[in-house]
């Protein structure tokens, strides 16, 4: 009889936490934010006069550049902004109130599935013996 061993070789990705570069040093998300800023600038160019366009172009370029490149606490700026808004708008304290129906289900389930377990009783001599064993394990 012949024994055939077959080994399959797979390439395991090394840097899975680094985003792929699409155009030069830019990732797809960065390119998307910059493209969105360019579209907004193109629309503003058609709608505004020259001085208003320059002022708004500086603001739009700063916002789209920050969304593309700035990472506070090593997370994307848009995620940081959304988390900040949710933190401000949501209540700061959560009070858990158990409904009576859940209490009854939990109590019935615990009584049905778990046997009664008694507590072990230790006297002072047993505690001293265990303590001595832990302090001097070679004796």
Spans of at least 5 consecutive residues whose pLDDT stays below 50 are none
Give the end-to-end Cα distance, rounded to a whole number of Å.
Answer: 58 Å
Main β sheet profile: 2 strands, antiparallel
Secondary-structure element series: EEHHHHH
Mean pLDDT: 83
Major β-sheet strand ordering? 1-2
User: How many separate helices?
Assistant: 5
Task: Report the C-alpha radius of gyration, rounded.
Answer: 32 Å
Strand-residue fraction? under 5%
Number of E-type strands:
2
Please tell me what the overall shape is: elongated
Helix content: 55-70%
Quickly give the structural class.
Answer: mainly alpha
What is the compact description of this entry?
This protein has 139 residues and is mainly alpha-helical.
What's the topology here?
Layout lengths: L20 E3 L2 E2 H20 L2 H20 L7 H13 L10 H14 L10 H12 L4
Antiparallel strand pairs: 1-2
Helix pairs in contact: 1-2
List keywords for this structure.
139 residues; mainly alpha; 5 helices; 2 strands; elongated
Explain what the structure shows.
- The chain is mainly alpha-helical.
- The protein has a domain at 21-70.
- It contains five helices and two strands.
- It has helices at 28-47, 50-69, 77-89, 100-113, 124-135; strands at residues 21-23, 26-27.
- Strands 1-2 form a two-stranded antiparallel sheet.
- Helix 1 (28-47) packs antiparallel against helix 2.
- It is elongated.
- The relative contact order is 0.05.
- The mean pLDDT is 83.
């Amino acid at each position: 009889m012949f024994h055939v061993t077959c080994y399959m070789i797979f390439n395991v990705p090394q840097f899975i936490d680094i985003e792929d570069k699409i155009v030069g040093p830019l990732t797809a998300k960065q390119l998307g934010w910059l493209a969105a800023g360019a579209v907004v600038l193109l629309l503003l160019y058609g709608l505004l006069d020259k001085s208003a366009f320059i002022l708004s172009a500086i603001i739009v370029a700063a916002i789209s550049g920050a969304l593309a490149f700035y990472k506070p606490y090593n997370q994307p700026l848009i995620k940081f902004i959304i988390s900040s808004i949710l933190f401000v708008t949501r209540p700061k304290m959560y009070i858990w109130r158990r409904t009576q129906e859940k209490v009854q289900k939990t109590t019935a389930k615990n009584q049905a599935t778990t046997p009664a377990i008694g507590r072990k009783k230790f006297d002072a001599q047993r505690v001293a013996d265990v303590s001595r064993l832990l302090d001097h394990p070679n004796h």
